[in-house]
Each structure stands twice: as C-alpha cells, then as structure tokens.
Design a protein that fits this description.
The protein has 440 residues and is α/β, with parallel strands linked by helices. The protein is built from 13 helices and 20 strands. It is globular and about 75 Å long.
Length: 440
C-alpha cells in the first residue's frame, strides 16, 4: 500500500530574515526542520538586509539614469548571494541543497526590466531536485525575459535577466507554489503577520488571524508592506494558500484565504497607509472623448502605475478641464518625461507635480453591507485637522490622499475611531454576526 504523498511547502524569507550570518543560519535551520518533518521544501530568498538599496546607490554613483537592463543584471546578484550562503549552511547540517537563479528555476517573464511580470514557471528542474530528495533554494525577485508570439501564450525566450520590482520575491514564491501545487506558501518576515495598522505608528495594533484575498489585495494596493500586491493577485488567481509568519518565533501568523474560507468578516479589518505617493495635475485639458485615454496610454507605455484619478467638469466656456492623479513617487520622473510631449499635442496649460503626498485607507469586507463608514471616516479626519486632497472608494475600501506629514495622525485617529486594537479584533467565527463592528 502506498503512503500519503508528502506535503510540498514553499518558504519565502525576506531581507531582514537573512540579513546576517546568524539569521541565515536560523532560516536554514527552519528550512531543514520542515524537510525533516517530511515535507518537500522549496525556499525563496530575498537579498540580505539593505543589499538591494546599496546596489541601487552604486548605480547612481556612476549614472543619473541607469539603464534598466543593466540595473537588472546588478540587482539580481543580491538574492543569488543569499541562496548560495543558505545552501552552504543546509549542506553543513547534513542535507543536500541546491541553489538556483530565477532563470535556472524556470521563471519566465516579459521584457519589462525592473518591473517584469511572470509569464510562466517551468518547474521541471525544481521537480527533479525535489524527487531526488534535495532542498531547492531559488533566488527571488528575478527571471529570464521572453516575448509572447501569440495570444495562446506561446513565447520566445530572450535570456536577459529581469527583476520583478520591490517585493518581487513574494511573487516568485507564490508563482512557484502555484506551479508545483504546493500545500502552502509561507512568507517569513520580521513581523508576526498582518496587523490592523502599522505597529510602528499604532503600538496597539492587533495581529489579524485571517484576511481574505480581496482585503489583502486592497491592503497591499494601499501601502501595506507585508505582501507585494502582485503576489496576492497571483495567489488569488491560482488558489494558493498564504501564511504570513515571523522568522523569529514559531507562533501562528496570518492566513490569507478565500472569502468562503474566512466566513463573516468585521466591518473594518485594517487601516493601511503609504508615504511614497506623488500627485500630478494637468490643467486646461481639452474636455473631449479620447483625451483621458491618450494621457493614460502614454503613462502605461512608460510603465507608470496610476492610482487615483480625478477629472473635473469644465466651468469655463472654452471646454477645458483639470485632471489629477497619483503615481508612485519613484515613477514621478518617468511620468513627467512621458507626459511632456502631450503639452503641445493637447495644448495642456500646465503639468504640475507634488511629491509630498501620502495615502490612508480603511479596508474591510464588511463595508459592503454597512452604510456610514465614509461619513465617519471623513468626520474623524476633519476633527483631527487632516485635510483630504483626493478620495477613492471600492466596495471594501475607502482611500484618502492627504499630505505626507498628516499620515501618522490620520492612521492613529482612524484606528482609534473604528476600535481596531487588540480588544476589537476577535477570532474568526464560522457562524453568526456577533463579532461584526458597527458604525457608531
């Protein structure tokens, strides 16, 4: 009679989890423990500590606008170092480990250097190593470039090194877990899970035992740094169970699951924030069909992500309007450069920028069925003296763009007003509505 098939676990360790020799040894020991417990183990590692920041600084020492392809060549080295070091430790502990680059692991991406998207994961090599009883270590954040040849997904590999952007190791781990059909993807960081707010701003923030994919998507898009947005999208689309845990203790973390698995959710789950936003305002924009599409197309072509968008109706008789939108601060120069030719083409009045913007968001699946959350949010911020510059909503999120300096006050006041501290976050209940918060 055949035994039960061994569990396949993908374990991802962030930069703080492998920041020095002791932490690499601790991560390697945790990987070995999972192997000795009977699991087939793939570990995805980030670059050590501030390595990526240091590599970026090196690039700007020699170039004001480093070439994206060469940036990827350089930035990909940090994760490879982490994997090689961890493999050495695991081998010393008596287990066979093999480290792989993203390309060797079969991570195929598009050609967008520094912000590449995964097209495919070819797991043959990983599976051969797992079948041979080895622990596989994969350098996160990177892959090899390819171009699509047809709409049915066929592609031609170019072989250039690509990177997936900040937090890309999360996406690497989730993509490998999906391709292998792993039982769980464990994300190890320096925090114990997902919290109701950033504990650095709100010391009383509560750890959440469970969040839904939809809530986690909105939280990641709104500034929560625990998981990269694309990794959550990938996990939801491929039904990958995520467990966010601390590298430094063995306690349970936060599971990210489907809404069906999370059952009833509280009204507001968390307050998230970002202090890395910039606002661009185009004045005297022609108010005619196709203009907004033209503006956003040039930004998309420049690989600039646009978040909130507001366009007012023209009040003057010349049919001119203003459009404002937010972009990541790191994309501001690229956005300005992309928009510059439109000034003459569309006879835009001015392209004004403000790099000192922040965003605070309330996220909660319970908002769908409870009125009054927006009114309470705006009232709380007004009473705290925080001016709201832009507003965006979805069925489970309310986001407000505010001045960067006002973000800490906004986060603390909203967390307090919606009672999201440890006493307000109750364990998941499979039945009933007793734990739902109420707007008062």
């Amino acid at each position: 009679m055949g035994g039960t098939a061994p569990q396949t676990v993908v374990m991802k360790f962030g930069g703080t989890s492998v920041a020095d020799g002791d932490r690499i040894r601790a991560a390697a020991k945790r990987i070995v423990d999972a192997k000795e417990a009977g699991s087939r183990v793939v570990a995805v590692l980030s670059a050590r500590g501030k390595t990526t920041d240091e590599l970026i600084s090196l690039a700007y020492e020699v170039s004001d606008r480093p070439h994206p392809r060469e940036m990827d060549m350089m930035l990909s080295t940090g994760e490879r170092i982490s994997c090689a070091l961890a493999a050495m430790v695991i081998n010393d502990l008596g287990h066979e480990a093999e480290s792989l680059t993203g390309s060797q692991a079969g991570i195929v991406t598009d050609t967008s250097h520094t912000k590449a998207r995964i097209l495919d994961v070819r797991t043959e090599r990983i599976e051969r190593l797992l079948d041979a009883g080895r622990i596989v270590l994969v350098a996160g954040f990177q892959g090899t470039s390819a171009s699509l040849r047809s709409d049915d997904g066929e592609y031609e590999i170019h072989g250039n090194v690509t990177t997936l952007g900040r937090g890309g190791s999360d996406t690497t781990a989730v993509a490998i877990a999906a391709a292998l059909g792993a039982d769980v993807c464990e994300i190890y960081t320096d925090v114990a899970g997902v919290y109701s707010a950033d504990p650095r701003l709100v010391p009383g923030a509560a750890k959440l035992p469970v969040v839904s994919f939809e809530e986690m998507l909105e939280m990641s898009a709104s500034g929560a740094g625990v998981l990269q947005l694309r990794s959550v999208e990938y996990a939801r689309n491929h039904d990958v169970r995520i467990h966010c845990r601390s590298s430094f203790d063995d306690g349970p973390g936060t599971f990210v699951l489907t809404e069906e698995e999370t059952m009833e959710r509280p009204l507001v789950t968390a307050v998230t924030h970002s202090t890395e936003d910039a606002r661009i305002t185009l004045t005297r924009l022609p108010d005619r069909p196709g203009v907004a599409g033209r503006v956003l197309s040039v930004l998309a072509d420049a690989n600039v992500n646009v978040d909130m968008i507001i366009q007012n109706e023209p009040e003057s008789g010349d049919g001119r309007a203003d459009m404002s939108f937010t972009v990541p601060r790191t994309d501001l120069d690229s956005a300005r450069e992309a928009l510059a030719p439109l000034k003459a083409e569309l006879e835009i009045g001015e392209i004004a920028t403000d790099p000192a913007m922040g965003k605070v968001s309330l996220v909660g699946a319970g908002m769908r069925t409870h009125p009054g959350v927006a009114a309470k949010t705006f009232t709380v911020l007004g009473e705290a003296g925080v001016n709201i510059e832009m507003i965006s909503t979805s069925p489970i999120k309310i986001s407000c763009v505010v001045r960067e300096d006002d973000v800490p006050t906004a986060v603390r006041e909203l967390h307090r007003a919606f009672e999201l501290g440890a006493d307000g976050i109750q364990p998941e209940e499979p039945r009933g509505h007793d734990h739902r918060s109420k707007v008062t």
